[in-house]
Specification:
Blueprint lengths: L1 H13 L1 H12 L8 H15 L5 E5 L4 E4 L5 E4 L4 E6 L6 E7 L14 E4 L2 E3 L3 H19 L8 E7 L10 H8 L4 E4 L16 E10 L3 E2 H4 L6 H13 L9 E9 L5 E2 L2 E10 L4 H16 L6 E9 L6 H7 L2
Parallel strand pairs: 5-8, 5-9
Antiparallel strand pairs: 1-4, 2-3, 4-8, 6-7, 10-14, 10-15, 11-13, 12-14
Bound molecules: zinc ion.
């Protein structure tokens, strides 16, 4: 393989202008997780770019899922379709390459355009996370296909469209498909300036906590109401105090909504939590703590409800994955 490494590297070097062009084109398409037309355009663009190198490309659609919106209402959410590309599907020796086409910034956000920081660095939505990663993947595959080793290895690519919201619809399919591969690589941006692989990664959960109170008019029946915002505030303070209690566990109360008018006792308030964990067993610890602290605020079962799940499991290096680092 050694003699091919320099050939591969110089072929990638030649492709540099094409990669930069693609980075501009792809990042100028807004494909935030909730922008379905943008995701559709991004999917078509990816399909066109990958089709010369893949044997087959298919789209997988998902049914809408129930979720809790900012106001605590149950709503149906439609996520974008996933792309599944295959190469030499008859081979048993296969690797999986993964990425996502969605980005964080909605089309109403001011961060839409690319700008040069210096001659070699561009700042823009999705440049690093992860349209840039998809471009690295594509050109690595094109270069690999020009080597004689290509005929011995089957590879598949999965590009989902709901990663930035925790892969709620594509996650189960990813788990199912990933069983059949000897190895898998995800093209998220490297955490260090040397471009090193991320070996371990914390798991995460996104939960919504809804506090239910009782609405009442402030002037006519204030004492008949129960203020959901105040109940939620008590819960939030206790939840925030979980930080620092267990190694590697953090809980961020990132978004809070509640109330309709200042002359009405609010009957609903919602907090959205982003929880990061270091070990698989931390999830049970977090759930226990939440359940205990909520019961301390009120023993009533229907005051607080928790929705959501831990969609991203903890990733730990094991002896099998350790072999990657010696390559
Ligand atoms: Zn990403």
């Amino acid at each position: 393989m050694d003699k091919w490494i320099s050939t591969l590297l110089s072929s990638l070097q030649e492709r540099y202008p094409i990669m930069v062009d693609q980075l501009h084109q792809w990042c100028e398409i807004n494909s935030s997780s909730d922008n379905l037309p943008g995701l559709s355009l991004m999917r078509d663009t990816l399909q066109k770019a990958f089709s010369p190198v893949a044997d087959s490309i298919e789209s997988r659609a998902f049914p809408p899922r129930l979720t809790i919106n900012r106001d605590g209402e149950q709503v149906q959410q439609v996520c974008g379709d996933l792309l599944y590309l295959r190469k030499r599907p008859h081979l048993k020796k296969r690797i999986l390459l993964c990425g996502h086409m969605d980005t964080v910034y909605a089309d109403t956000h001011p961060f839409q355009n690319l700008k040069y920081i210096d001659d070699h660095r561009i700042n823009g939505p999705g440049v690093a996370d992860m349209k840039g990663g998809l471009i690295v993947m594509l050109h690595a595959l094109i270069a690999f296909e020009a080597t004689p080793y290509a005929s011995e290895l089957g590879w598949d690519v999965i590009i989902n469209a709901d990663e930035e919201i925790g892969s709620p619809v594509s996650g189960p399919l990813l788990m199912e498909l990933s069983e059949t591969y000897q190895a898998a690589l995800v093209y998220e941006p490297a955490m260090t300036s040397h471009g090193t692989f991320a070996k371990n990664r914390r798991g995460s959960g996104k939960l919504s906590l809804i506090a239910k109170g009782k609405a009442a008019h402030v002037g006519r029946a204030f004492h008949e109401g129960q203020n959901a915002i105040c109940l939620l505030a008590e819960a939030i303070t206790a939840i925030h105090a979980l930080n620092g209690q267990r190694d590697g566990v953090t809980v961020n109360v990132g978004l809070v909504t509640g109330g309709e008018a200042i002359n009405v006792v609010p009957d609903r308030a919602v907090a959205h939590l982003d929880i990061r964990i270091q070990q698989a067993c931390d999830e049970a610890w977090v759930r226990d703590q939440l359940s205990c602290l909520l019961k301390k605020i009120t023993p009533k079962d229907d005051t607080f409800t928790l929705h959501g799940h831990f969609g991203r499991p903890v990733k730990r290096v094991n002896p099998a994955t350790e072999q990657w680092w010696v390559l």
